[in-house]
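Two proteins, back to back. First:
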Amino acid sequence: MKQSILHVGFDDTDSRNGMCTTFLAYKIVEYLRKEKVKFLDYPYLIRFNPNIPWKTRGNGAVALKIQTKTPNLIKKGITDFVKRYSAIRDGANPGLVFYENNEIPKEFSDFGRMALCTLVARNKAKEFAMQNNIETFYMGNGQGLVGAIGAIGYNFRDHTFELISYRHKSSFGKKRLIFKDSVKKMQEMTFPKTFNSYDDSKNRALIAPHGPDPVFFGVRGEDVSTVVRGASLVKSPEKFSGYMVFRSNQGTGDHLQNELDVNNLRPFSSGYMIGHVIETPKIKMGGHVMFAISKSGKKANCAVYKPTGLTSIASSLIKGDLIRIGGGIRKASKTHGRVLNVEFIDVIKLAKNSVLVNPFCTGCMKHMKSRGKGQGYKCEKCGRTSQNKIPTKIPRKIKNQLYLPVPSAHRHLTRPLQRISRFNTKIEFDGSEEWFCNSV
């Protein structure tokens, strides 16, 4: 029988009350292994635009690339899993796509890039599927088709890996008990090949969710062997039922690579802007900081929220500083216009900061005293005089460098400092069994 290469994508199967699209992927892979299909790559976990208002948690979609002699049978089996495991009653709008072809056209990658940085309408996804001979299945309004299509065509500029472990069904909804010290030690032992496992500034483990979903914990890193080793170092009285390793765009900062048009800041879009600070930052109630930048005479309002740990940096900016900032555009309200919610501040060039002070007597090494309004200044000791105050440079508290939020405030896509100059460009799949386990 002829072998077919089948690309499978699915998204929006979970809700805020439970389930998880990666857990569905885990169950589908478990089924596919029994059907003896050949996996051509690791499962993809693609995080799309984090500013979409209806997203659930990490806004992640999953894609699989397999080879099979029975594509129709496999499609039916996967569709049954989506029907069974999607949280429809809690508001999920699952989308499932199949594309049977050896290669993925460039248009698919373009679609994925668009879903990474902007808001894509579900009707546009349905239209794209029809034009490109993509088989679709969806429930609800079909919003999941956007991520499903984007995932199968995602073009990795850089990639990382995440091992996600899953709980036994009897533990769903119960509090996770993970020994925090073991997570801290794991990060120390695997650094810099793992990232965002522990926030030293907050003394907080970052590997486990807090909701009722089936995920136990996840370890993010640069390669498969590292995340597997990292997971083995995490200690807990609870044993996970299995795990799967995903190739992902997490930790790549890919959603902030496109330059936003200051003349057309579209709500919910993600990207970066370069401009000069045009007003003194203001600290608002709650400790948040607001300021504005200008590019080509056009003003853009920016907000830095206290949990990011960037407020001290933002409040140290002054008029004239040239900065690059990245983030998402918040929709305008009745009281506020569109605002860029800042995810990083990259100081390109600091303006000189100075104040006018009383002139200095070089003979007596003291500042002169004012003689009264409009009468100049005089040294009380030697009698020297001067008419005007002199500018004195004030040292800046910040430097020309990149500033990121504290790890606990990172989004899934945030590129941590340790990855700033690191790019994984080789996409290799060795077919080993290390990436999947369901017998722990």
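And the second protein:
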Amino acid sequence: MSGLTAEIAGFIANASLQAMPEAVLGKAKKCVADTFGVMLAGAHSEVAPPILRYLDQGGARGDAAVLGTGLSTSPEMAAFANATFGHALDFDDVLSMMVAHPSSVIVGALLGAAAGKKISGRQFLEAYIVGVEVGAKIGLGITVGHFGRGFHSQGTLCTFSALAGIAKLRSLDTATTQLAFGIASSLASGVRRNVGTMTKPLHAGWAARNAMAAADLASFGLTAAPDALEAKTGFFGAFGVDASDAAVTSKGLGKPWTVADPGLAIKRFPCCHASHRAMDGLLTLRRKMNFTVDTVKQVDCRYPPGGTTPVASYPEPKTGLQGKFSLQYSLAAGVLDGEYTLRSFKDEAVLRPEIKPVLQKIHVTEEVHCGNNDPHLESRSFGSRGFVEVEVTMTDGRNEMIRVDHAPGHPRRELEWSEIQAKFMDCASTAHIDPNGAESVFKRLANLEACNDVNEIAALLLTK
């Protein structure tokens, strides 16, 4: 019987867009279009200057576009930069079964792999869907315990997502793909301690770059263990927990296709997804109660056990990046501003003096009852387990509470194309892309299966 590494290689080779359910294509297009947008904005984030200096120092040259900039570079370095920028603002989509944001890594890697070749929209989408599927099912098999150990799945599991997409796009044979997964098993890396710093989005870029390197090295004849995923001393053994089971991954490939079921969550807010249900609940209560910062006495936010893990490290953040992983700040900003934009998580917004007294009004707890009805509590990601309660008490004694089960953009609260377009246009304006040009590009992304060459779209998103 073949092992998991070989089975994944065979699965990638045999996967076909034509054989996938119709719903898969539409949902994939939404995620890809959204990812192009967040890459544009990320190219003008605080993460961009050191990344661009790194590219310049390396001196790599090539035809691969770095979206939102005027630069073209080598395929590997473009994959690195685009994926980093895609995750820079924490505005990219999220897949709970991986506890990761796979699209930024996959799309970044595929843009690099497509450079200099004529790659149709259908080929690009097929490779993207396969990339999501492989990483997702590895995540399902290794379990959320991988994330719990301190590994950041963006840098670990998404390496395999990107590699699967590249292997499909390049039509690598199964033997070469199997070797590439062996190489990637030794390259995958990333620790959660760097959440809230610039190194968190670096994990995405490094994963895309590692995937490109693994595919190239395998193609050039570098050898690796044929069972590097499932062997006792392989990836599952080293990075997993007692509950990890490679057989779960093997049995789940394409059954169903993850892009359609359970689907990815496309973010409405540019911060950690674990905060989104609470933020949505606060805005709903603000509209209903018509409160202001002066009329709010206290905000109580209740999460299921373990639910605040990704957003509890920075109760009083000192930077915009820390603010993205601070539930207290996210709620305080909602009280003060009544909305969330890209500007909400800039350094100047987090450090404004008027936010400090509002932070003292925010009380966050984890409550058993918020997870009692979730039979999969321990296996779900922190942002999707159980439900969240937000309760606002006003100075005049009025009190309202709301329960939120799913954040906006969750597959059960899917964003419409018009909402994704509005987000794309906002991101494009941050990158100083002409509005008419941005609208034209978005239309092409929304109809990506009809595109003859994805590189033509990428070229339109280079700035002068």
